[in-house]
Design a protein that fits this description.
alpha/beta; zinc ion binding; 23 helices; Peptidase_M14; carboxypeptidase; nine-stranded mixed beta sheet; 4 domains; binds zinc ion; 35 strands; Aminopeptidase
């Protein structure tokens, strides 16, 4: 068996180094012969910072969910480090052409996917060499290194591997040490993929990191990854499609860097590929996000990942070791720094140019709508340093999002205006534009994410100037005021309202809600409006304080009501006014579910809604007494056909019939549909059967006919269905595939009506469009005394589709 060539890079000219210990010397084992636990990595970085205080600074920029430190190491020459803050300021001034910097900033990010575990190991070797025999590179550079973006995931993998590895390690791919299992280390604590979160910032690691990233906006950013064990190495230039805001220089410089890597890889006889698979479109990656902020953002992929362990035999019989993987990542890391060091002037000139090009077709985005949703959006924009203003009373023409056609929209002082003529104009364009232009429809990820759709706002993209006034945060006061009211009323139309309700239920407050619209004191209240009656809560000793605090905490307006006798609609004692009390909620985890889809639900409850759940693992699900729970959630996944046996289906049906509420998402619906007694039915669909005489080489193109790569569709909503309380038409859904179900016999809350199978944004293949025509998206079915809720699309996908979250909250609270 041929062994991959080991790098000679580890044999260092020791005489030049002085006292500084290499990772191997510090750790007490040769780098690549063990996985290094995160705390040991932290120790090594701290050691370096102590030894080299004049050339290195280490900062902790945050903490993970599991309380591991997040670190950044800054390294450069002694004189640069003395002026670090000045270098940073001068660099940022260059954005506005107010300075001519002579230093460049390179940011290296490691181990965003926890089980792509070579990265952090390689980072230690790389920083060591930059401080020793490659220190000449640093004359005009500041290097910022994040040794581990995802420490929780990394340690999950490393600890697992250490527990299961053979001694010595076994290269047989069948051995347990190469089969990580469901709870893998790829994602963070909440099973979120941090390399899909740069733009949405749903995760604590991303939010902390972005604060630091925005202070520096590096010229070059590398995100170190691993791909499957049978792949060689991937580096820049990236594959098509490229987003249209990417400049020629950004394209070209990737090529410059790639060619430098190739030089070293060729010399060592290592394999690699470029310009394939990893494109530059979806804005939430560690390569695209930096690119849309003026940098050269790149993904490097070593073959390996969680399967590889310390060594594994690959498809062609070669042994791939951790040492090989370290050598490769280490080589590209240093080569990147080398190229940057030779192009400091060019990087600075082009960085300035990137920020001066501001002639995008759409000059402004006008956003109207629910204040909670506008607030949620403004909060995201603040984190990205995208500026916004308030509108003034005037009408504008442009692309109207609701109809996908030219239209007019009236702006007012309640409108939010986002201009592309601002420092972060490119990023604003990428995030807001109605359709991302695709230079190729074969892409690695979703093709649509436009924020006005995601946040459920009425929006117009206009080519004209828009009158603006400075945004002032609202100075409304909250709290309950009069503590002797008969009751208090609150509207129900946003995720913020759901958080407010969860807070009250957590404090054992009894809340009612209206199933019919009503009016009181001349004010109209929609379905779902919350009714909190003092007498209902007479046994809650600090009822008024709790309510007052919650109102202030969530900036939630409450209207006092002095009577239960309404002017129109149903009185508060009516059976159309439902009572809500504490709910016991269970969520299935394990094999049938996808880790990511489970994680989205877990995160939704613990970090967004703040409401407790019980996690039931599939391994003992059959032994659990479901009668202890009011709600059971089956997350999307692939394993439901085997998990939902006749016996499991019966158990679930019995429980639902006795008053339980089942929420079935994606693949779980597929599993249920195969069993008797559920009203959901897969759409019968005839694939185009004409014989295909296209050339073999177009098979990839052929395949995408049946795919929907994350595209946005306009839907029809039955706003009288409790699942849709608080919504107005139109609702735009993000479809991630061609899963298709017939309309239900009643209870179709959201669906694609005739003609709605054409995406308003993003790519859907011709066959996929036919298949999803006139199908269900979200629906409810009554079963005995309980309910089944079907979610064909996923409103919690990556936690960023803000306007979908209320559907999920309605499924919990309003469907009764
Ligand atoms: Zn990765």
């Amino acid at each position: 068996m041929k062994k991959l060539v080991h790098a000679l890079l580890f044999i260092l000219p020791l005489a030049l180094i002085g006292q500084l210990k290499s990772p191997s010397e510090f750790l007490g084992y040769e780098l690549g012969t063990q996985f290094t636990r995160h705390h040991q990595v932290v120790d090594y970085y701290q050691y370096l910072a102590q030894q080299e205080p004049k050339r290195m600074q280490l900062m902790q920029y945050g903490e993970t969910n599991e309380r591991r430190p997040l670190l950044l190491a800054y390294i450069s020459t002694e004189s640069n480090m003395k002026n670090l803050e000045e270098i940073r300021k001068v660099h940022l001034k260059n954005i506005h052409g107010e300075a001519a910097p002579n230093k460049a900033i390179v940011w290296l990010s490691y181990n965003v996917h926890g089980n792509e575990s070579v990265s952090t190991e390689a980072s230690m070797q790389t920083i060591y060499e930059l401080l020793t025999n490659k220190k000449d590179y640093l004359e005009d550079l500041v290097i910022i290194m994040d040794p581990c973006i995802n420490p929780d995931g990394r340690d999950r993998y490393v600890n697992w591997y250490n527990q299961y590895k053979n001694s010595p390690f076994n290269v047989d791919p069948n051995s347990k040490e190469h089969h990580e299992g469901w709870w893998s280390g790829r994602s963070n604590h909440y099973m979120f993929d941090l390399n899909r979160d740069w733009a949405w910032l749903t995760q604590v690691e991303s939010r902390h990191r972005l604060k630091q990233y925005n202070k520096w906006l590096p010229h070059v950013h590398v995100d170190f990854h691993e791909q499957g064990v049978d792949n060689p190495y991937y580096f820049a230039p990236a594959a098509e499609p490229y987003h249209e805001v990417i400049t020629d220089f950004q394209r070209d410089f990737q090529e410059t860097i790639g060619k430098n890597h190739a030089k070293y890889f060729d010399a060592n006889g290592w394999f690699y590929f470029t310009k394939e698979r990893f494109d530059l479109l979806y804005p939430s990656y560690g390569d695209t996000y930096p690119t849309y902020n003026g940098g050269i953002g790149m993904t490097y992929e070593q073959g390996g990942s969680g399967r590889a362990g310390l060594g594994i035999i690959n498809r062609i019989g070669d042994t791939l070791t951790l040492k090989d993987r370290i050598a490769h990542h280490h080589t590209t890391g240093l080569s990147t720094v080398e190229v940057a060091s030779k192009n400091v002037e060019k990087l600075n000139t082009e960085f300035r140019k990137f920020y001066s090009q501001k002639n995008f077709t759409h000059q402004n985005f006008i956003l109207n709508g629910n204040t909670d949703k506008l607030e949620a959006l403004a909060n995201l924009l603040d984190q990205h340093q995208i500026k916004y203003d308030k509108g003034t009373n005037a009408s504008y023409k442009g692309f109207y999002y609701a109809t996908s056609k030219t239209g007019t929209l009236r702006a007012s002082e309640n409108s939010l205006i986002v201009s592309t003529d601002q420092t972060r104009g490119s990023l604003a364009k990428v995030l807001f534009e109605p359709k991302a232009m695709l230079s190729d429809s074969v892409t690695y990820d979703i093709t649509a994410w436009s924020l006005p759709y995601a946040y459920g706002l009425d929006a117009l993209a206009t080519e004209s100037n828009v009158q603006k006034t400075t945004f002032q945060p609202s100075n409304s006061t909250y709290g309950i005021g009069d503590t002797n009211s008969y009751g208090y009323l609150a509207d129900w139309n946003s995720m913020k309202d759901a958080k407010f309700l969860a807070e009250l239920l957590n404090h054992k407050i009894r809340v009612r809600y209206a199933q019919k619209p009503f009016s009181l004191d001349g004010v109209n209240y929609d379905r779902g409006s919350l009714i909190i009656i003092s007498a209902d809560n007479k046994n809650v000793p600090d009822f008024t304080q709790i309510l007052d605090r919650a109102s202030k905490k969530f900036a939630k307006s409450l209207t006092p009501a002095n009577t239960g006798f309404v002017e129109s609609g149903k009185d508060f004692g009516s059976s159309y006014v439902e009572v809500l009390q504490e709910l016991k909620i269970a969520v299935l985890s394990g094999e049938p579910a996808s880790t990511l889809r489970f994680g989205e639900i877990w995160h939704f409850f613990e970090q967004q809604l703040n409401y407790p759940i019980t996690v039931l693992d599939e391994s003992y699900f059959n032994r659990v007494d479901l009668s202890k729970y009011d709600i059971l959630i089956l997350p999307d996944g692939w394993g439901y056909y085997s998990f939902i046996t006749e016996k499991v289906a019966q158990k679930i049906k019995d429980w639902v019939s006795n008053g339980g509420k089942l929420i079935a998402m994606g693949g779980a619906v597929d599993g249920l549909a195969k069993q008797k007694g559920f009203g959901v039915k897969e759409k019968e669909y005839q694939r185009d059967s004409t014989v295909n005489l296209q050339a073999f080489d177009t098979s990839e193109r052929e395949y995408i006919k049946s795919t929907i790569s994350g595209a946005i569709f306009k839907t029809t909503v039955d706003t009288t269905n409790p699942l849709a309380y608080g919504y107005e038409e139109p609702y735009f859904t993000l479809k991630l595939g061609d899963r298709s179900y017939e309309y239900l016999d009643g209870g179709n809350a959201v669906y694609l009506a005739e003609g709605q199978n054409i995406p308003v944004s993003g790519f859907a293949g011709s066959e996929a469009k036919k298949k999803i025509a006139e199908t269900l998206i979200f629906g409810t079915e009554r079963m005995g005394r309980g309910h089944v809720i079907y979610m064909i699309d996923n409103p919690l996908f990556r936690g960023f589709w803000e306007n979908g979250k209320l559907f999920f909250a309605n499924a919990l609270f309003m469907v009764n």
